[in-house]
Model the fold of this input.
Amino acid sequence: QVQLVESGGGLVQAGGSLRLSCVASGRTFSVTYMGWFRQAPGKEREVVAHIHWNIGSTYYADSVKGRFTISRDNAKSTVYLDMNSLRPEDTAIYYCAATGRLSISLSAFESEFEYWGQGTQVTVSS
Done:
C-alpha cells in the first residue's frame, strides 16, 4: 500500500500562484507514476499532470500547459505541482495519485491510478 498526503491548497486571487505538495509513504518503491487530478463542482475528475517517478518524463493537460509544473523529489518521496497564472476556472479539489503500472495512457485515466490522497481545495477568486 502507498499512502498519499497533499498540502498547499488555499485561496488565491486570479493571476496568483500556489504550490501543492504530495508526500508518499509505505511501499513507495513500487510507484512508477504520480499525478495530479482535479475535480470542480459539478464536473468529472480530470487529469492535470503526471510524472514518471524514475525517468521524470511529464504530461500536462492542455488547460494548464505553460502555467503549471509538476516535479518530484525522490529523496523526500514528494511530488509538487507549481501553479502560476491561476484562473478562476482552476478552482477545484486537487488530488494526488500514484500507480505501480508499467505504463499509463498519455492523458491518464483515474482508473489507472490505485492510490489517492484525500484532496486539497484550491480556490481562485476573480
